[in-house]
Specification:
The chain is an all-alpha fold. The protein folds into two domains: 3-21 and 136-203, Endonuclease Iii, domain 2, CATH 1.10.1670; 30-129, Endonuclease III, domain 1 (Orthogonal Bundle). 57% of the residues lie in helices and 0% in strands. The chain is built from eleven helices and no strands. The protein has helices at 3-17, 30-39, 45-58, 62-65, 70-77, 83-100, 109-113, 120-129, 140-148, 157-167, 173-186. Helix 9 (140-148) packs across helix 11 (173-186).
Length: 207
């Protein structure tokens, strides 16, 4: 199978397996999504979803969040790991949203990435899933699968994102990034993976 044909095969297979792409992190608005994505760093979505109800019951908006101390936030989010740094980032970005953005999460990559604890991947998820702006957030699943499928050299996530954006149509980026994550979790795991049994790796072009 030629590379162009394989790319179409990947798109069709993912559309067939995952016609719907619900966002794995529970949220109600751009702010709660931003906080959930920040908490998901080096933590599973499942664990984040068990922690955020307790946090959001006390503060689901920046005004209420800064009324909490960083220590209070840290105690709540401790199961997510890196709690001290994440608590500080949550409090400080909430203050920034109030002071610099009139209480609203900004709809800008540049302004999001200027916030504490918000890197390019987090900003991309928020822009894609909260505001519908085409983006291709690359997490460990996507980075791994792009290399396995020979769609990127896999040198780093920046390189992988650039390669995938060239390969796939912009109109599909927001859906594809979730589809690839779902596929990686179900069929193409990091450990114990058998390429011959994988619906996509089994037909991926050889280098």
């Amino acid at each position: 199978m030629r590379k162009k044909e394989f790319i179409q095969f990947v798109q069709d297979k993912l559309d067939d397996l995952y016609p719907k792409t619900p966002i794995p992190l529970d949220h109600t608005d751009p702010y709660s999504l931003l906080i959930a994505v920040l908490l998901s760093a080096q933590c599973t979505d499942v664990r984040v979803n068990t922690v955020t109800p307790g946090l959001f019951s006390k503060a689901n908006n920046p005004t209420d969040m800064i009324k909490l101390s960083k220590e209070e936030i840290q105690d709540i989010i401790r199961p997510c790991g890196l709690s001290k740094n994440k608590a500080s980032a949550i409090w400080e970005l909430s203050a920034m949203i109030l002071n610099q953005h009139n209480g609203d999460v900004p709809q800008s990559f540049e302004k999001l990435e200027a916030m504490p604890g918000v890197g390019h991947k987090t900003a991309s998820v928020v822009m894609a899933q909260a505001f519908g702006v085409p983006a291709f957030p690359v997490d460990t699943h996507i980075h791994r699968l792009a290399e396995r499928w020979k769609l990127s050299s896999g040198k780093n996530v920046v390189h992988t994102e650039r390669d995938l954006k060239k390969i796939f149509s912009e109109e599909n980026w927001n859906k594809l990034h979730l589809q690839i994550i779902f596929f990686g979790r179900e069929y193409c795991k990091a450990r114990g993976h058998n390429p011959k049994e994988c619906p996509i790796c089994s037909v991926a072009p050889k280098r």
